[in-house]
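The material for today's practical consists of a large collection of protein records. Backbone structure tokens are a discrete shorthand for how the chain folds in space. An example says more than a description, so a record of this kind follows:
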Amino acid sequence: MKVREITLRELPMKLVAPFQTSMGVTTVRRIMLLEAAVDGVTGWGECVAGEDPSYSPETVETAWHILRDHLWPLLRGREFSSASEVWDLLARVRGHNMAKGALEAALWDAEAKLRGLPLAKLLGGTREEIACGVSIGIKPTLDELVAAVRKEVAAGYQRVKIKIQPGWDLAPVQRLRQEFPKIRLMVDANSAYRLSDLPLLQQLEGFYLMMIEQPLGWDDLYSHVALQKMLQTPICLDECIHTEEQARAALALGACKIINIKLGRVGGFTPAKRIHDLCQQHGVPVWCGGMLESGIGRAHNIALSTLPNFSLPGDITASRRYWLEDIIDPEVTVSPQGTIRVPTAPGIGFAPRRDLIEKLTVRKERLA
């Protein structure tokens, strides 16, 4: 395989409704796409870096710079036998996993197309459909939260996650348990609490949650070790896990009982598969988190979720839940049973809508 050129694009996409977490509110997502021309086929990837460095140190601007000035020069003119080799070729650049993940994912898509295989099969996936959960942001009132959850439960989603923050935690969880005593419910704090908040976090245990996701600091593995020892409810780590080594440490130290694997956060399919395999060896389940992706990033998440240890519903939802019009054909749909059928066409299995992509693009750069 040889990459002939890559094209970077930025296109703003407005969410159907604002999405609020403990880190802020997103109304328009700055979607960054990477198109790679490889031996006569085109692979697509999406960089999930944010508009600001709140979730991660990376942003759209840093990713663009790193891809153009550092990652692309490492691949230009290089030949390799499979996309699985790309992660090691990029190792000279430390960090910047979201930039790496966009490039690496595009090359996995290209290889799958060259081999005439669905991306899920190339990865070693074993599922024909995946289970879907839903992530619901912080709402202005409890009544609005209940209405949002009722709508998603009626749509069939198999698990509900709500965002929490200090001042919006016990009350929403208690209300949801009163209204929906049997749903699979979890909370996500996005690092909003500290170990000194233990009494409050222990109160959440009375509502039989599936897990508490990333309650403490985004890089504070030590405190999560202490917290998990004092909680029966499983802690799920998200922001703390950027590398296979961090996942290994988290498991060995007992910092969590579940890990959320996000393709961009860990740098692509190769490291994601390594973390998946490590967790599987330790009997620790994983699931796929979302980053308000367009359909292209969503398609990659679907493929990743077919690996056997993705045993919990991920944050992969229908396109129309976030976008009035997605940039893939067909759009992602969810069955009444809360599942997504894994596409069988080569590559990601969805066709990027070039006409709409070009219409929405506000910045474009071709690198050859």
